[in-house]
Amino acid sequence: MAAARPAFWPTMALRRLTSAPSLRAARGPRLPWLLAVIAVCAVGVWLAHAGHSETALPMLLAVAPVLPLLCVASSYGGRADPFAEVTRTTPAGGLRILLIRNGQILLICLPLLTAMAQLLPDNRWAPGAATWLLPALTLTLFTLLASSYIGGWPAALVTTTGWMVIVGAFTEVIDKKRGNRHKGLEDLLPEVLRELIGGSAQMWWAIGAAVLVHLLAKRRHAFDRAGGRR
Amino acid sequence: MIRTVNLSVRLRRALAVDGVDLDLGPGVHGVLGSNGAGKSTLIRTLATAAAPSEGTLTLLGRDPTIPSQRLEIRRRLGYLPQHFGVYRSFTVREFLSYAAWLKEMPGTTIPAAVEEAADQVGLADRIDRRLRTLSGGMKQRVGIAQAIVNDPELLLLDEPTAGLDLERRGEFHALLRDMGQAACVVLTTHLLEDITEACSTATVLSRGRVAFHGTVGQLTAAGGYTTVLRQNQRTRPRLRRSGMP
Description:
Chain A has about 230 residues and is an all-alpha fold.
């Protein structure tokens, strides 16, 4: 009798990881969703190149930190999960499933958006393409924490609005610093982003992420309490 | 196994469950009531999906307001809501495996438990079929299977026989009687047949309150469900609302 061919374990592990029902029980990371995200990124890159736009990269960097959490909210809100009513009465249905699902989205969005940033027309003044990764993680953690108080969608909206307000306020401040010599967004946004997510700001984002992880661990039971928000 | 003292649950401004006292042990317990009587809200509260606004609730000797005890309860709980959705691309096996994973069953026991649950609801031959290919009645059986996959000590079923044909209903009653030997099974229903065929006790809810609680024989002696309900509605004022006496 021929001996069974030994399976290549990384392939097996990957298959097992991606086929686990706990990971597949999601509206988000399915083929149509993935194709839509890739198509939006591809069209964005094409438009930036076609228009020779130098603002494309700064614009992407400005919105990228909040993109993953909007994907999370639209894919996993209480209404997006048909099995949510039962899930919330199970021991794994609290923070654990929420973290798994967030991790899943981040694993898809982070490489995709980083690759997109690399493909955009170069802007020598903008911070590096990967600088948004840590802010994205921190804002996602903040959204998770806020969702334990007000629910997933409102938390994502509050975070997104807050981030846009901060970007707008910084733009205004820097414009004033320069004596209102307004030269347009392509002039201001790279400097705003350097202040917000570039260089030394990264350390503050890391500290913020660590603090939020600690607070999230303290609030973990709020995600599985009876009548809790999702 | 279930003990409620003056349990009240508020849905927006209205009291959906109003001062319910229950003490249920092992066995199959039926909850009857007309639409809007508070059956589903009561079941959701017992399943820890909704929070009581007043009163105390003890499940399996534990307090669901304490996080560690709530997790203990949920590991031993099976719940079928009245309306539930499924992941249509999943097979029956995958769906039940996912439910077992959510209930923190040990990984090694999941495959056997999944096959047993599918067998108990008569879906053993369709275990690798995708859920989108199943009929409504079969999906209801999948819902029952996900509730019993962890062999729960506390099984809460909200109108479980809706959509089941006569033959399956008979088999389901037998399954409930079997589970009720060791576990506390609570089911809501509109069908008197479910109560007479499967239940050891019956509770009639009217406008959020217990109108009757006793054995099925006592309910019959009292004139049956409709008589009890009619008598209760005659003697009770309208539904109490927040801020009203």
